[in-house]
Amino acid sequence: MALKAEERPVEQMKEDFIVGKHVYGNLYGVDPAILWDKELLERVIREAADKANMHLVEMKTWSFTGYHGGISIIALVLESHIALHTWPDYGYATLDIYTCGAQSDPWKAFNYIVSVLKPRHYTVHYADRSSIPGATLDEKR
Questions:
Q1: What domains are defined for the chain?
Q2: Beta-sheet strand order (sheet of 20-28)
Q3: Active site residue ranges
């Protein structure tokens, strides 16, 4: 019978836990031509996953036309996911990178994507999603 998390010895919990790192942000002032370029965005997501030591399982891309149109890309990686949503009419995109495991680095993926999309400015947030609060103590890079 498996023990509930709160029933496990503290020493075991410290040695056996899920490392979850979630980096997400908003990109402003991106060239609309870039935000419409499906092939470029797919390539950038693949390269970002590779740079962050993430293993791509599958990627899906959708193009939406019309006034609030844009491109959405969801990349399922073994470690979790990368999601990019664009609104070219506004020069705006949102980026979400979540990894599980100590071997991958969502900051590398985020920073690489920002370096290619070249927003005028952006916001970035970090959430520790580990099974032990504060376990990763990752700082913004």
A1: 18-128 (3.60.90.10)
A2: 56-64, 70-77, 80-87, 92-100, 20-28, 121-128
A3: 80, 85, 100
Report the amino acid identity of residue 24.
Y
Strands (E), 2-134: 20-28, 56-64, 70-77, 80-87, 92-100, 121-128
What does the chain come to in residues? Answer: 141
Task: Look at residue 3 and tell me whether its pLDDT is greater than 50.
Answer: no
Between 5 and 76, where is the model more confident?
Answer: 76
Q: Return the C-alpha torsion angle 37, 39, 43, 44, nearest 10.
A: 10
Q: Which residue has the tokens 């092939």?
A: 39
Tokens of 129: 């999603």
> Could you tell me which of 124, 103, 82, 96 has the C-alpha nearest to residue 19?
103
Q: Which two tokens stand for residue 126?
A: 């970090």
- The pTM score is 0.83
Picking from 120, 122, 131, the residue whose alpha carbon sits closest to that of residue 23 is: 122
Question: What count of other Cβ atoms lies within 10 Å of the Cβ of residue 119?
Answer: 20
